[in-house]
Design a protein that fits this description.
Pnp Oxidase, Chain A, 35% strand, globular, Split_barrel_FMN-bd, oxidoreductase activity, acting on the CH-NH group of donors, NAD or NADP as acceptor, seven-stranded antiparallel beta sheet, Flavin reductase like domain protein, mainly beta, FMN binding, Flavin_Rdtase-like_dom
């Protein structure tokens, strides 16, 4: 089948998210200007550069009590910093709990029963005990096509890795099994690895 997104699709549910999979989940922690922590998962997330290391996440919705965006973007606009926490399979329920829509100024760490820790290079909370966390300084926020669609870019200024994730000098994802987003309400866990060598290596 073929369809043009501008014309809609003939299926009961939008297949776009199911096609672009699996997607890593950026569990984005911020705080507002009053110091209230915020935590929310974003599945439009990825690394975008090595030197300096940079990441991005996209926010595609809006809250009635924010200015045409969500709390994460509003907080980053105001403070210039955020932290990306990596979600392991064991944290799926806490991650899901933090995705609920709460009024502005609500501490999602507390609502989801998550312990916050302080970052080292930025004034922002992070998820304590997560397999890895990337402390980021905002480089730019880009508004893209569509209502309330923003891409947030940040330079990684500090990296936390849980000690048990480092095996033989490598960050080993099999020690915690990353949670990934699929389409609809589906998720998957990364368990199986294989290695490929480029032809010119």
């Amino acid at each position: 089948m073929f369809y043009r997104p501008a014309d809609g699709h003939p299926l009961p549910h939008n297949p776009f998210n199911a096609i672009v999979t699996p997607r890593p989940i950026g569990w984005i922690s911020t705080q507002d200007v009053d110091g209230v922590p915020n935590l929310a998962p974003y599945s439009f997330f990825n690394g975008v550069a090595y030197v300096p290391p940079q990441v991005m996440f996209a926010s595609t919705g809006v809250k009635d009590d924010q200015d045409n965006t969500k709390d994460s973007v509003a907080n980053i606009r105001a403070t210039g910093v955020f932290c990306v926490n990596i979600v392991e399979a064991a944290a799926r329920d806490a991650m899901n709990a933090s995705s609920a829509t709460f009024p502005k100024g609500t501490d999602e760490f507390a609502k989801a029963g998550i312990t916050a820790a302080r970052c080292e290079t930025i004034d922002c909370p992070r998820v304590d005990g997560t397999p890895a966390a990337l402390e980021c300084r905002l480089t730019q926020i880009v508004q893209i096509e569509g209502a309330s669609n923003y891409v947030v870019f940040g330079e990684v200024t500090g990296v936390h890795m849980r000690d048990d994730t480092i095996v033989d000098g490598r960050f080993d994802i099999t020690t915690y099994q990353p949670l990934s987003r699929l389409g609809y309400r589906d998720y998957t866990v990364v368990k199986d690895l294989f290695e490929l060598t480029r032809p010119d290596d």
